[in-house]
Structure formats: C-alpha cells, structure tokens
C-alpha cells in the first residue's frame, strides 16, 4: 500500500488508558500506520504500566509522552488536539470516561480531549460491573450527548476467569469503525456525524436455511456483507444497533449487538420482537421463500432404483410485509431489499415497484442480480425506491458507501 506524503495523511490521536486491553491497541496502531495515517500516541501513565513508551514510539515513529511538561515550547496539550482529524481512545477505562465527562485535565490525554474539535471515539474496556455501574452509564450518556462516539463494549472473556460485557472490541473492527467516522467527517458530513444518536435500529443480514434433514438445507447465496456494512455504518453514526445475522461467518462489528439465527422462523421471531422498540428496521437478509413441509429426522438416502424423493414445500412468513403493515412503533422507518433479475412479467424496475407497494415498506433497495452480481462482492450498486415516489440512484461503489446513502434516507424520514 502506497503511503501518502506526511502533509496529506489524516492525523489521528490514539489515546491509551490504563487497562489490560492496552496491548490490543498495538494492533490498532499498526493498522492505522500501515494504511497511511499519521498517528500520535498519547498514553496515560497507567497505560505505560501495561505497554511501555518504546513500543508506542517504535510503532508510531514518534516520541511518546504522558504529561504536559515535555516539549513545552510546542504547547502539546493544546496543539495535539487542535491538529487532529480524529481522536480515538482505546481502551477507555471507567476512570478515563469519568475524567472526560467531567472535563478534568490532569495529563496530556485529558488535555487533548478538551482541545480536540474533531470527532472523538471512545472504545471502553472494563469489567462488566464497572461498565454497568450507574456512574459509568451516566458518564457515557454525557459524552454521547456532547457528540462523542462511545462504542458499546463486546461480550466475552475478561481479565482472569470473568466473562461478560466489557471486552474491548477486536482491533480490526475498531479500525473499520474509525474509518467510517473519519471518511464521513472528511466528506463534509460532520454536521450529521451522529444523526442516529439515541436511535435504536435493527439490521438483518445473511441468508436463512431451511433444513431437509440433519445435513441438507435449502439456502441462498447471501454473504451478509451488505447487512454488516449497514450495521457498522449505523453504529458509526451513533445508533444503538441490533444485527440479526443468519448464517454469516463475519466478525462482529464494533459496538453492535449480534443475534445469530438459522431459519426464517428464527429470523422472524427475533426481528419482530426487536422491531417493536426500533426507530428503523433494515431487512438486508435474504429469507428463504419456502421451507419443507416435513423435515426428515435422519439423512435422506439415495433410492436403490434411482428415483428422487418428493419434497413438498410451503411458503415462509413474509417478515418485511408483517413489520411494515403491523408497526408497533409509530413513525418507524422500514427498509426492504429486492434482489431482482427481471422476467417475462416485467423489468427489474417494474417488479421492484410492485414489490414496494405489496410489502408496504418505506424504502426498497433494489439490486439487479442478473448473472449473480452483488453476492459475495465488496461492492454494490442499487436504486433506492421510496413509497412517496422518490428514487435515488446509487452508483457502483463499496457496500459501505451504499449503507451510508441508505441511512441518509432513513435519517431524513426520521426527522420528518
């Protein structure tokens, strides 16, 4: 990867506070530097108990300091924050979150947080009890109210034998989250950077499976990439995101609650329940239209006479139609997806318009999948049809870019 000249590189501040997860931030730093970012590491004194200053200096190519007294002539406690394009604190301990929420400035990192006028991302990591404590939750709410992005911690193994919510999300996912924020900020969308803050959204992703027997199933080619891009984009815009993943083998996006399902019935159960409290639901998953009437309890064997078994199918419930026409939350926005190829009955556009009317959703994202296009690809192009007659053409680009266009349309309708 070609690294741009220093003056053209996005300037990042990586704050590191004193938690055991500080070692993971070495991987985050490596990802930033190798992708061409100019990174200044600002650890707390406690963080250096876990990872020493020489490590941060070697990985960033810059000297490291924790206090405001080094290089005083350069006024680092003001300059570093003023010049940054993004500040990310990973891990952010309960102590650091409390200091940031109350405007304390007793070291270089907390001074930097006060002087930064760019987007600020906190990636908390602590024991479950500390995360759930009312004081921590109040501090997180304060920071979010001020426009900071606080990533929800992951669930899993913590220090020692403990498990629960409070684990630092994987560095690769924090990196992707920060790229979403940085790209959106640099593109001129900074004013709406947290336009989904305080909103609860549900995204479905992947393809369901309908079992014929213990080893065989009916399925489809959906990879889940678009749904995951939608979840990641929503989280980066401040939303509380529930991602319902059907048979997807992708890492959990940072700050997103992931619920895994297999069948259409399971997908329906989770989505319908979550939609009751959601401001928006985006059905990017590809539910199977049919399921076998009977599922064999044993593997279906080949017949000796060469005949094939007869499999009777029945229709699955229409989840998109159900949540669109039986809305538990007034004013919610429902988005569907249509993978069309066109046929003798009409073009892709004709079939999509008919589907929009039939489903009752507010927006329908239409993909022309002739020849297998879109499936498994990192890129996409689509037409977004609205129930009010509006049409948005989204040119070929990344699935992340399409995700943000979709959320732009959702956010606009949530404000109406």
Automatic annotation (TrEMBL):
Where does this protein come from, organism-wise? Answer: Nocardioides ginsengisegetis
The residues covered by the Flavoprotein domain are 11-181
- Protein role: Catalyzes two sequential steps in the biosynthesis of coenzyme A. In the first step cysteine is conjugated to 4'-phosphopantothenate to form 4-phosphopantothenoylcysteine. In the second step the latter compound is decarboxylated to form 4'-phosphopantotheine.
Q: What is the lineage of its organism?
A: Bacteria, Bacillati, Actinomycetota, Actinomycetes, Propionibacteriales
Cofactor or coenzyme needed: FMN; Mg(2+)
Tell me the cofactor note: Binds 1 FMN per subunit.
Pathway of action: Cofactor biosynthesis; coenzyme A biosynthesis; CoA from (R)-pantothenate: step 3/5; Cofactor biosynthesis; coenzyme A biosynthesis; CoA from (R)-pantothenate: step 2/5
Q: What is its EC number?
A: 4.1.1.36, 6.3.2.5
Q: Which family does it belong to?
A: In the C-terminal section; belongs to the PPC synthetase family.
The name on file for this protein is Coenzyme A biosynthesis bifunctional protein CoaBC
Q: Where does CTP bind?
A: 289, 299, 317-320, 337, 355, 359
Q: Where is this region: Phosphopantothenate--cysteine ligase?
A: 201-416
Gene Ontology biological-process entries: coenzyme A biosynthetic process; pantothenate catabolic process
Q: Name the GO cellular-component terms.
A: phosphopantothenoylcysteine decarboxylase complex
List, alphabetically, the PANTHER family matched. Answer: HOMO-OLIGOMERIC FLAVIN CONTAINING CYS DECARBOXYLASE FAMILY, PHOSPHOPANTOTHENOYLCYSTEINE DECARBOXYLASE
């Amino acid at each position: 990867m070609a690294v741009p000249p220093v003056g053209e590189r996005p300037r990042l501040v990586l704050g590191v506070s004193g938690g055991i997860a500080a070692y993971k931030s070495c991987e985050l730093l490596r990802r930033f530097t190798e992708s061409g970012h100019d990174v200044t590491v600002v650890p707390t004194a406690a963080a250096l108990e876990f990872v020493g200053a020489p490590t941060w200096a070697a990985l960033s190519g810059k000297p490291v300091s924790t206090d405001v007294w080094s290089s005083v002539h350069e006024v680092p406690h003001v300059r570093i924050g003023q010049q940054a394009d993004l500040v990310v604190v990973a891990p952010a301990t309960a102590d650091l979150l409390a200091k940031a929420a109350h405007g304390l400035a007793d070291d270089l990192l907390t001074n930097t947080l006060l002087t930064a006028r760019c987007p600020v991302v906190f990636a908390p990591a602590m024991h479950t009890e500390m995360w759930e404590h009312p004081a921590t939750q109040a501090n997180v709410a304060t920071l979010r109210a001020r426009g900071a992005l606080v990533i929800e911690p992951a669930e899993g193994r913590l220090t020692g034998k403990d498990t629960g919510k409070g684990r630092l999300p994987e560095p690769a996912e924090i990196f992707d989250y920060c790229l979403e924020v940085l790209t959106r900020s640099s593109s001129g969308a900074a004013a709406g950077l947290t336009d989904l803050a305080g909103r609860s959204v549900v995204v479905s992703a992947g393809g369901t499976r309908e079992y014929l027997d213990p080893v065989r199933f009916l399925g489809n080619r959906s990879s889940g990439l678009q749904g995951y891009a939608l979840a990641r984009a929503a989280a980066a815009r401040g939303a509380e995101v529930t991602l319902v993943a059907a048979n997807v083998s992708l890492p959990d996006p940072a700050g997103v609650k992931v619920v895994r399902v297999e069948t259409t019935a399971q997908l329906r159960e989770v989505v319908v329940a979550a939609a009751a409290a959601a401001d928006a639901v985006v059905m990017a998953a590809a539910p199977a239209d049919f399921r076998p009437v009977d599922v064999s309890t044993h593997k279906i064997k080949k017949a000796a006479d060469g005949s094939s078994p007869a499999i009777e199918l029945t229709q699955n419930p229409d989840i998109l139609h159900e949540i669109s026409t039986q809305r538990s939350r007034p004013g919610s926005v429902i988005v569907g997806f249509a993978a069309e190829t066109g046929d003798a009955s009409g073009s892709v556009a004709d079939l999509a318009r008919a589907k929009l009317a039939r489903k009752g959703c507010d927006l329908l994202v239409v993909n022309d999948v002739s020849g297998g296009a879109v499936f498994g690809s990192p890129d996409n192009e689509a037409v977004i049809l609205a129930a009010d007659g509006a049409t948005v053409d989204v040119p070929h680009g990344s699935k992340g870019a399409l995700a943000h266009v979709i959320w732009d349309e959702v956010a606009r309708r949530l404000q109406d």
